[in-house]
Design brief:
Length: about 240
């Protein structure tokens, strides 16, 4: 008598990704927990970022393109006066400048200039591939090449607090927006440079951080308990033909 294969579950699992892990690290740990290979995600978060990671379990991987195209929301922190090669806290410091005594009104005025449709040049420290080679691998060798600008839209960019040299902000944007590039460019606009020092994704499409469970908390559940947390495919993508 042959052993029956373990049941393959399917659906969308919302994970609050901790800082320091790659999105693939989360995939690996869920594969190990659920003993299944067919697990992916709908939208990468950098290792330094935390927050909402939309995980696709089993046959739910087929709806990846629909969920990845959703608008995103973030809360972040920019540190003024320090420019890094990666535009975030994980890079090497390239330049330091004095931070002028900016007022909140001056910062908000600069932030308003980022609203609307625009083209953004992806940073060299990114996973975009050119002739099959990720840009970040070229950047590690000190190479800088021309990058194709990408169309993005910033729907909201609001100042949450201003305690120089740190600014905290909220941002709503289309997919593929590099928030660290926004932070870098804001610093340039303010005349002192900046880098992204913290980032948390708070929403992706209709999903919010309030629906998430931390990765360690998920790993502490039984597979049956995880299955009960899954959002069915038809609920995750209403209006999409099945």
């Amino acid at each position: 008598m042959s052993l029956q294969a373990p049941k393959e579950i399917e659906g969308v699992l919302l994970v609050d990704k901790p800082r320091g892990l790659t999105s693939h690290d989360v995939v690996y740990r869920l594969r190990r927990k659920l003993q299944m290979k067919k697990i992916g995600h709908a939208g990468t978060l950098d290792p330094m970022a935390t927050g909402l990671l939309v995980m696709l379990i089993g046959k739910a991987t087929r709806i990846s393109q629909f969920l990845m195209s959703a608008d995103k929301a973030y809360e972040g922190e920019a540190t003024l006066g320090i420019v890094t090669d990666s535009q975030d806290a994980e890079g090497e410091v390239m330049e330091t400048r004095p931070v002028p005594p900016l007022t909140e009104d001056e910062v908000r005025a600069a932030m308003r200039g980022f609203l609307g449709d625009q083209y953004q040049t992806p940073p060299m420290h990114s996973a975009i591939k050119v002739e099959g080679v990720p840009l970040y691998k070229m950047a590690r060798k000190g190479e800088v090449i021309d990058r194709e600008p990408r169309f993005i839209r910033i729907m909201a960019f609001d100042l949450l607090s201003c305690s120089l040299p740190q600014l905290t902000f909220s941002l709503r944007c289309t997919k593929g927006t590099y928030v660290r590039t926004i932070a870098h460019d804001l610093g340039q606009k303010l005349g002192c440079g900046a880098h992204l020092s913290a980032l948390r994704r708070t929403a992706s499409g209709s999903f919010t951080i309030a629906q998430c469970l931390g990765l360690e908390a998920i790993e502490a559940l039984t597979p049956a308990e995880i299955e009960r947390r899954l959002i069915p495919v038809h609920e995750a993508t209403p209006g999409v033909g099945r």
